[in-house]
């Protein structure tokens, strides 16, 4: 067991993935000597060399487009997009090329590419540094999308993503990068594309992923003091969704609150709500409620704490769910 | 007084067009490039030129008859494609647009496979790894980055600059004049330059991006842009198969040797429409077409061979007959291409099919089966088991 920050857990996971498979490359802006602006790739270039840890020119489409070519040549590139709001120049390569290559080739050409994106707000950053674009990728057939929420998952999920023969957009909760937890590097992880109950409860099911898992857990502690039992599920995988633990939970609680930092309109919560209503309509005691960002662009950071869902807004939604 | 004219004086637009055979079929010398081909090889290239033009003509006819949804003709660009395509070695790799039918021919891709995309029965029916020829790319310029990444992979595989002619490899990226305005193409130039990647950027400047003339893409000759990115650029007569072969051979060898990228601008003309859906009479002059007809890439090779005795009428007639035969068989095979099975598309999205896709596939198979029951009284076929595996489908 090792105490690791989430960022360091990712570093360890990447290091192990590179040790296990010489075809694994790390590429992105400032990932070499600097170790990335969040230091997630710290020390990798020193140990694996400039051929495997590549400081790229400053152009996101170029990062993903060349990764496509490297994947066609048999490599497994792990691309770092420096911040969520900078992924859009690469959007065409991700959506039109990475996502479709296997399909266009009738399954002949795998795209084992991982696209790491630090996402979400709460760090007082300037604009374009706090966004949550996960639904835009979850909506794209051909991609798989996951979000880690804690150091243990960070360590294992990044390795599982690298091992996947399908392209994975890997969201990292940037405001949780510095939070520590025990990581068992010899432990056994859950499958990558699975959700998990992280706190058992009986009254309301609260679904979250990435940075909001901790918020949901804190809300559950607070609710417990008021005699309300919240079951918290870390979705972990956003495409495909792993609905079985969710549906099992909802059949017991009859009430669901979905929490994410992303805007609610057509977000992950909307898809979850549709699936829940399709699969366990008669178990529901209340409509599926969503707690997310307002449908505005991300605001100036001095008011981001009001924009982002927090413990109180989660509890407010829990109250509304229980009022039915 | 500020002298703005001083800047203009530094703006040199002089350029050299590499040509080794005139439109009249006369061989000419060039100080930097020479034709290494003997008459037998030139005869073989003549055959390539005629066959790909015939294949192209047949595809256009198939579209006119409703058998293809659309076709992007290579008419006029045969020399650029055959000359560059024949400069490649087995271990090299090409990244085409959607018009490189001549390059596909050189790589050994069955022309039928090209038709699949345009008939709508697939989106790329060949395995790029078999012949070193990537799938057609429709998003303009996107493939130049793939080419550059692939070339970086060759570097990492130790396939560059070893001096072993069987091992050293390079990539050639095809694109058009319109694509040079795309960000991806410019990013590819930057990547290739700073990583010294073994890639040849082969631009067929056919003067037109659908309706937009080259003047809407650039104020300087395209090949001169290469210098700004840090590698050589050369303009070659794109209708001269010998010059295209010589220049591309040199550029590919430079790449294989580890000396980095080259930009080749093959100066040519799109003799047909952009695609069969286009109407060039709305935006260009007939006179231009007549002017370029005089520079036809095939006629000059035929004139050279006939005049010098490299080939006679019997040979020309044989090639003509062969081309008709290739076209006839291509037509027959095109018409008998089966439509894809809709239930297969669920299997091709992921290596590891998602539970949701399994469910959708099963539900749609069951939905289809309800029609079979009502029409034939028997619900056969289209069965999908609980794991989403199709009956009778290869494992």
How would you portray this structure in words?
The complex is a heterodimer of chains A (324) and B (395). With 324 residues, chain A is α/β, with parallel strands linked by helices. In chain A, 35% of the residues lie in helices and 21% in strands. Chain A has 12 helices and 14 strands. Chain A has helices at 6-20, 44-48, 60-72, 91-98, 101-104, 134-138, 151-163, 212-225, 244-253, 268-279, 304-307, 311-322; strands at residues 2-5, 24-28, 53-55, 76-80, 114-119, 144-147, 168-173, 180-183, 196-199, 204-208, 230-234, 237-239, 256-263, 289-293. In chain A, the strands form 3 sheets. Chain A has a 7-stranded mixed sheet with strand order 3-2-4-5-7-6-12, with helices on both faces. In chain A, strand 6, helix 7 and strand 7 (168-173) form a beta-alpha-beta unit. By secondary structure, chain B is of the alpha/beta class. Chain B folds into 2 domains: 12-335, Rossmann fold, CATH 3.40.50; 341-395, no CATH class. Chain B contains 14 helices and 8 strands. In chain B, strand 3 (171-176), helix 8 (183-194) and strand 4 (199-205) form a beta-alpha-beta unit. The interface between A and B is large, with 45 and 45 residues.
How would you summarize this macromolecular structure in one to three sentences?
Chain A is of the alpha/beta class and 324 residues long.
């Amino acid at each position: 067991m090792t105490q690791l920050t989430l960022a360091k857990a990712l570093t360890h996971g990447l290091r192990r993935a590179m040790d296990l498979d010489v075809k694994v490359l790390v590429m992105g802006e400032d990932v070499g000597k600097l170790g990335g602006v969040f230091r997630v790739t710290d020390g990798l270039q020193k140990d694996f060399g400039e051929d495997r840890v590549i400081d790229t020119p400053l152009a996101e489409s170029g990062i993903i487009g060349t990764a496509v070519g490297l994947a066609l040549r048999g490599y497994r590139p792990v691309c770092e997009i420096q911040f969520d709001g900078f992924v859009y120049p690469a959007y065409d390569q991700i959506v039109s090329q990475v996502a479709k290559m296997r399909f266009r080739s009738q399954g002949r050409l795998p795209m084992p590419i991982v696209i790491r994106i630090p996402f979400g707000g709460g760090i007082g950053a300037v604009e374009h540094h706090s966004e949550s674009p996960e639904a835009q990728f979850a909506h794209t057939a051909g991609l798989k999308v996951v979000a880690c929420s804690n150091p243990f998952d960070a360590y294992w999920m990044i390795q599982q993503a690298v091992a996947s023969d399908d392209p994975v957009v890997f969201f990292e909760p940037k405001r949780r990068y510095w939070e520590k937890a025990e990581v068992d590097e010899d432990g056994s992880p859950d499958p990558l594309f699975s959700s998990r109950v992280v706190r058992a409860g009986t009254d309301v099911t609260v679904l979250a992923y990435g940075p909001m898992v901790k918020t949901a857990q804190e809300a559950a502690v607070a609710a417990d003091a008021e005699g309300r039992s919240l079951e918290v599920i870390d979705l972990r995988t956003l495409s495909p969704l792993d609905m079985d633990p969710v549906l099992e939970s909802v059949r017991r609680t009859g009430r669901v609150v979905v929490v994410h930092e992303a805007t609610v309109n057509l977000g992950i919560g909307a898809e979850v709500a549709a699936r829940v209503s399709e699969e366990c309509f008669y178990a529901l005691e209340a409509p599926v409620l969503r707690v997310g960002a307002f449908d505005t662009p991300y605001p100036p950071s001095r008011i981001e704490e009001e924009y982002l869902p927090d413990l109180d807004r989660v509890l407010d939604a829990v109250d509304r769910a229980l009022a039915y | 007084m500020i002298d703005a004219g001083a800047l203009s004086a530094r703006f040199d637009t002089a350029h050299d067009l590499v040509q080794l055979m005139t439109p009249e079929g006369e061989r000419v010398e060039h100080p930097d490039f020479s034709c290494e081909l003997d008459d037998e090889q030139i005869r073989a290239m003549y055959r390539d030129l005629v066959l790909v033009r015939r294949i192209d003509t047949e595809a256009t006819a198939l579209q006119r008859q409703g058998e293809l949804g659309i076709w992007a003709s290579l008419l006029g660009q045969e020399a650029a494609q055959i000359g560059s395509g024949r400069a490649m070695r087995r271990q090299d790799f090409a990244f085409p647009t959607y018009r490189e039918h001549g390059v596909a021919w050189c790589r050994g891709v069955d022309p039928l496979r090209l038709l699949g995309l345009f008939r709508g029965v697939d989106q790329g029916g060949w395995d790029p790894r078999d012949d070193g020829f990537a799938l057609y790319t429709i998003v303009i310029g996107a493939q130049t980055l793939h080419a550059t990444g692939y070339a970086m992979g060759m570097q990492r595989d130790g396939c560059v600059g070893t001096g072993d002619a069987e091992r050293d490899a390079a990539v050639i990226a095809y694109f058009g004049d319109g694509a040079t305005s795309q960000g991806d193409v410019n990013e590819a130039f930057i990547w290739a330059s700073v990583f010294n990647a073994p890639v040849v950027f082969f631009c067929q400047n056919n003067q037109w991006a659908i309706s937009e003339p080259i003047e809407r893409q650039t104020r300087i000759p395209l090949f001169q842009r290469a210098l700004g990115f840090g590698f050589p650029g050369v303009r070659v007569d794109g209708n001269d198969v010998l010059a295209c072969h010589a220049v591309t051979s040199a550029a590919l060898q430079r790449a294989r040797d580890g000396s980095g990228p080259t930009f080749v601008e093959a100066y040519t003309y799109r003799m047909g429409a952009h695609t069969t859906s286009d109407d060039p009479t709305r935006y260009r002059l007939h006179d231009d077409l007549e002017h370029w007809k005089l520079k036809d890439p095939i006629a000059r090779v035929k004139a050279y061979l006939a005049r010098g005795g490299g080939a006679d009428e019997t040979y020309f007639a044989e090639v003509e007959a062969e081309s008709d035969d290739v076209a006839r068989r291509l037509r027959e095979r095109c018409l008998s291409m089966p439509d894809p099975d809709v239930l297969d598309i669920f299997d091709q999205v992921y290596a590891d099919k998602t539970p949701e896709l399994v469910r959708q596939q099963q539900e749609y198979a069951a939905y289809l089966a309800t029609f079979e029951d009502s029409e034939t009284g028997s619900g056969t076929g289209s069965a999908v088991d609980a794991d989403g595996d199709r009956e009778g489908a290869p494992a």
